[in-house]
Amino acid sequence: MEEVPQETWLLIFSFLSPTDSPRVCLTCKWWNEIWQDKTLWKHFQIALIGGKPRPPLLPKAWMKSVKIAFSKLQNLKRPRLQLEFAIEEGHTVLANRVLRAHPRILYPRVVKKRFVRPSGQQKKCAFAHHHPLQLVAQGTNENLEMMKLIWSHLAKTSKTDDLIKKPKPGVKNHLFHPEQLSAAMSAQKAVRVCISELFRTGGNNAALLDFILEVFPDAIAYVRKHWRRLSTISYYMKSPHSTQFFEVLEKKVGVVFIVDDLQQSILNEPLAHWLLDRLSWQADGARAIISETLSSFGWRDLCPRSVMKRLLSEGTFNAPFPWMKWTYEYLRRTPIDKKIVKWFIQRAERDGLPKDPEIALNCYEITTRGNAKLFKHLFKIGAIVDVNWVGRSTGRTLLHYAVEKNHVELIKALLECGADPKAKGRKGAVSPLSIASQLGQHEVRALLLDATKKKQKKKQEPPPRKRKSKELADEEEKEAPKEEEGTANEKENGTNGKEEKSNKKRKVEEKKGAGKKTEEEKMLEDRIGELMKWICETDATEKITLKEVVTAQQKDFTVFPLKMVCRKWHLKPTSQKRVNLLQAILTFLEGREAMVQAEV
Predict the structure, then answer these.
(1) DSSP 8-state code for residue 380
(2) b vs e for 342-353, b when ≥16 Cβ sit within 10 Å of the residue's Cβ?
(3) CA-to-CA distance for 346 and 369, rounded, in angstroms?
(4) pLDDT of residue 487
(5) Most buried among 73, 354, 360, 361, using CB within 10 Å?
(6) For 158-212, how does the pLDDT look when each residue is reduced to its tens digit (9 = 90+)?
(7) Does domain 1-75 have CATH number 1.20.120.420?
(8) DSSP assignment of 201-222
């Protein structure tokens, strides 16, 4: 048995079924080893069920994929469930076998469905269960082969009405629609359901849509008429489309995009940039896009930073735009992007709008959550005009809010920026120091007391003498008489000359001290010179090999050439001091000397 080649056994086993696995494995060890071969199970996968194993491709992935498929098929008795499983896993051979045996699956029963559209029209009927094309549309571009297979079966069988299941005469059912669709109408409805599912799921379904538009010409007219309604459904389902999907709509269907489409896809960063490149939005649409984007932050995700930067930088606004109003609207939401806040304030300054001192008081992140980092960012970019500003409606400062909420980090940041712990505000508001004592916040009270003491010390200290600026000194010198100018200049030159001489002497002494060599360094240099002389005289090629050491010797063994030698020969001195570098090079040259002696 072992004399037969393994390829022959694999050919014989390929005619068996994966269900014969127990009988083969229990026969002998040789058969068991051959039965585990990867090529055999790959043949079973391609010939019996089709497709590939789902990633990640682990060891024995082909065997596991086939065994899982056969175990699930034993539990699924109905053909429709078997087809759904084949579509979900991408098993094209299995789907082809099921459709050949049961082609009526492509024509499900039509049921009554009471659904009133916004236009007032009533949707009369719908499929009793998901159509196979609709199931394929829920996947990605990997299901393109499956869609081609199902469409080929549907195109063959839709020519006649033999597969349509008609209701029995005299039997009434309140669920099923009395007038069943023909095969052609059912195929048309299946294609429309598939297109709706492609729009609803979004993702990478451009290849599937392209195929449907090619094989079914009526689909182009349907998409051209209803694509805006279908894209709105996907917008509310938060299923972002790819740029390839919109390219198919533009090239195959001839869709003309407008600014409203850009507003709906503003959260999809690649698609938003794709539409910004194609639409003329700078003059007319920028105001509407920004207003729509900022006003909808409460229930939608955050706008991408790159898209917002492009809107703010490239948009042109003829009428004055309420930048501060939309900045407040943005600061009331969470989370907050610091870069976007900075761009808003810069755009407001560019348009000549004054800064509002209440910008930090209207920020939910600062007043309620105590975001100290955001406050420091606003203070750094100059958005906060006055830290001690009292709110017009509340009559309180930022320090009042921070002390009430016990945000210690924000209190520290405010005190560093000059907040007053004794600011009383308006409308009967007490100072932050008294609020901390009333609430029993001992840590906060200690911080506020330290800040007040530091302020008092600064007030009591005498003001520093003001140094005269150069301009004032020049004016005084011009007004003074020439004799006084001469004496003053001589004195100044004398003092400056003395200072310059002392600095020069100090630098020369430092250079001399740095240039002095210790006895250890001199000994190391002499030893390196002797080794280099002997090595170069013994072997002339070493002079070229040790070129860096020769250059370091010519430069009197300064630090930089020594470092270059260590880097060239990958030497590792204990430190970067000159002595340690010389020691590392000396040990290297001693090893080199031993090598040359061995060669001689």
Answers:
(1) H
(2) bbbbbbbeeeee
(3) 25
(4) 47
(5) 360
(6) 888 777 766 555 544 444 444 556 888 888 888 888 888 888 887 678 888 899 9
(7) no
(8) H-BS-HHHHHHHHHH-THHHHH
